[in-house]
TrEMBL record:
InterPro entries: BUG, Bug_dom1, TAT_signal. The keyword Signal applies. Residues 1-37 form the signal peptide. It comes from Polaromonas aquatica. The keyword Nucleotidyltransferase does not apply. Keywords: Signal. The lineage of its organism: Bacteria, Pseudomonadati, Pseudomonadota, Betaproteobacteria, Burkholderiales. Belongs to the UPF0065 (bug) family. Gene3D superfamilies: Bordetella uptake gene, domain 1, Periplasmic binding protein-like II. It comes from the Bacteria. This is Bug family tripartite tricarboxylate transporter substrate binding protein.
């Protein structure tokens, strides 16, 4: 029998080196895959690590107001996906700035806020001693929804251009209401006063739109800009009259004409509501909220509920909300400068 040939020492060393090189190559190729899998696992763990207790959403307006209704519509599905209670806390006052300031100063990583335009756009331009900085003290999460405003009046007043004739003739004997100094209803009316021929109606601030409606029904004020969700039930019941919308035709109120039909030109204004957190909101919270909130707002059931309340659902990324804040800050700044509005 022929004996198997023996490998020379040099050949054995060469084969061992090739085997080692192949092992190193395989391990090197596996490293990026392992790192990628580990990174994905860590991202999932980070997003899933929050919340660890109930989440509070502060709303700077009373129960039944349009920001409150939007917050409550968001809270139920958000609670389901987060696996923790989401509690709405109403902190009305100062056009929502009291609640916004509490959100800015929150340190528990489980406090969020639902705010309106003014808290993020005009507040810093109006208040010399605003206790928070809209540009620095918040984490933007999502623009929830938008709506035009409806100019409403008591039913015994005239409609269309005749309404504005009566308002001009009344001078400062007429009053208008809003949800507070610096609110969109306040700044929008000041802009409307210039667009409709120098109206002189006097501003009276209230805690929320339900109180504005009560004042309209009681004759303390003669007009106000309020969201469709608040206005339409009163209009349909014949308790208030719709003068016009602060935008073009809207699916939220298709039967109400735009103010342009009453010869109020170049006037376009919306109210909106957004979800924010404090600037120190953790990465885990931001990741989870960015993952869930826009999906909830784009859900058909959520959109329909918001529509029924007088909102058009949006649901943006944080960058989308930032873009809206910047563009509207410029618009509101123009109104404030034009009318010389300052709040002490």
């Amino acid at each position: 029998m022929k004996k198997p040939s023996r490998l020379s020492p040099a050949t054995r060393r060469s084969m061992l080196g090739n085997a080692l090189n192949a092992t190193v190559l395989i391990a090197a190729c596996a490293l990026p895959l392992a790192a990628s899998a580990q990174k994905g696992s860590k991202n999932q763990e980070t997003a899933a690590a929050w919340p660890t207790k109930p989440v509070r959403i502060l709303v700077g307006f009373p129960g039944g107001s349009t920001p409150d209704m939007a917050a409550r519509t968001l809270a139920e599905p958000l609670s389901r996906v987060l696996g923790q209670p989401v509690i709405i806390e109403n902190k009305p006052g100062a056009s929502g700035n009291i609640a916004a300031d509490q959100v800015a100063k929150a340190t528990d990583d489980h406090t969020l806020g639902v705010v309106i335009n003014g808290n993020l756009t005009s507040a810093k331009l109006l208040y010399a001693k605003l206790p928070y900085d809209p540009a620095k003290d918040f984490t933007p999460i999502s623009l929830i929804a938008t709506a035009p405003l409806v100019l409403v009046a008591p039913p015994d007043l005239p409609s269309g251009t005749a309404f504005f004739d009566a308002a001009r003739n009344a001078g400062d004997k007429w009053n208008y209401g809003s949800v507070g100094n610096g609110s969109v209803g306040h700044l929008g009316m000041e802009l409307l006063k210039t667009k409709a021929g120098d109206l002189a109606a006097v501003h009276i601030p209230y805690q929320g739109n339900p109180q504005v409606v009560t004042a309209l029904l009681g004759g303390q004020i003669q007009m106000a800009l309020i969201p469709p969700g608040i206005a339409l039930p009163q209009i349909k019941a014949g308790k208030l009259k719709a003068i016009g919308l602060t935008s073009g035709r809207s699916p939220l109120a298709p039967e109400i004409p735009p103010l342009a039909d009453a010869n109020v030109r170049n006037f376009n204004l919306e109210v909106w509501t957004a979800l924010i957190g404090p600037a120190n909101l953790s990465k885990a919270a931001k990741a989870r909220l960015n993952q869930e909130v826009s999906k909830i707002i784009r859900d058909n059931d959520t959109r329909q509920k918001l529509f029924n309340q007088g909102w058009q659902a949006v649901g943006t990324s944080p960058d989308g909300l930032l873009s809206r804040i910047r563009s509207e800050t410029a618009i509101m700044g123009g109104i404030i400068a034009m009318r010389g509005i300052k709040i002490e």
